[in-house]
Amino acid sequence: MTTIVGTIDRLAGRKRPQAIALPGQHAKRATKKMNVSANAGALVPFMAPPYCIDAVPLAAVAPGRAEPSWIRARLLRELGFRADMEVRFIAQKAVTNTDLDTQQSRFHIPNDGVQHRLSGMLSDAELEAANLLHLKAPWPRPRKRQPPAMIQARQGEQGGKRTRQKGRDHVGLPMVLVDARGRTKEMELTQWDSSGSTVIHGGDYLEFMRQCGYEPEHVVEIWAFREKPFRLFGVNMCAESPLHVVIAYKEQQFAA
User: Fold this and answer.
1) Residue 43, Cβ neighbours under 10 Å: how many?
2) pTM of the prediction?
3) Which of 184, 209, 236, 238 is 20 to 30 A from 97 (CA-CA)?
């Protein structure tokens, strides 16, 4: 004790000794206080739990959307597909008059379902074939009214006949349209340049829609699936299938 006091007396007027150098209980307390101060702003590493979270992205499944049981229990089996393949909800909509109009002859798929769910099932080459590689937001096309004098002058230049500008021919991506009873029809999926709308169209489209009994204002759900290639020991067990799109009434039920 005398040695410590004498050392402190000799250091009088100089820099005060660090508390960490003091012996005994006082040094331990001082050291602990210094460590707490030094680590107050330090980053603490976070270790992730040693397991994977089994979850499906919200972009692929609508919140609270229950998959119809008849799709796996009956439809996939009738079409010759595996019952454990992915079936993805695309969108819900009410059938419109334009979906059944002879002038339009196409079925419109809501843009949100195309952008967040359907496009993820297609390869880049398929997206390009469907004109979906660069998605466009649909926009309304208000008709511009021209003065009668301008219309008459234009018709006079054209010999009194109105001509309509021809747009690009939309071939689209080959796909299969399916109804809830398993009826199928080969169609094309494409996005129109003029409006940015994604549609299903093709030969005998209206006839197929009439056979399936779709009517305006009926609420339908759109589901999609496709077989992916699977190899086992170098052998192709199943080949890739075209995209299949199912249109079914929301409340439609079938016995399994």
Assistant:
1) 6
2) 0.64
3) 184
Phi, psi of 6 (to 5 degrees): -65, -40
Residue 158 burial class via C-beta count within 10 angstroms: exposed 0-12, middle 13-18, buried 19 and up: exposed
Say how far apart CA 177 and CA 182 lie, in whole Å: 10
User: Helix, strand, or coil here: 26?
Assistant: helix
Per-residue pLDDT, 57? 44
User: Tokens 């002859």 identify what position?
Assistant: 105
d(CA 234, CA 239): 13
Q: What is the three-class DSSP state of 37? A: helix
Q: Of all helices (H) and strands (E), which one includes residue 29? A: helix 25-38
CA–CA separation, 203 vs 185, rounded Å?
9
**What stretches of 57-201 show up as alpha helix (H) in DSSP?**
69-70, 76-78, 111-113, 124-129, 148-157
> 132 with 119: CB under 8 angstroms?
yes
**Residue of higher predicted confidence among 52 and 223:** 223
- For residue range 3-43, list pLDDT tens digits in order: 554 554 554 555 555 544 445 555 555 555 555 455 555 55
60-67, long-range: CB < 8 A, 24+ apart: 60/88, 60/117, 60/120, 61/88, 61/89, 62/89, 62/92, 65/89, 67/223
Q: Are 173 and 126 in contact (CB under 8 A)?
A: yes
Q: Residue 219: in which H helix or E strand, if any?
A: strand 219-225
Structure tokens, 161:
């006949």
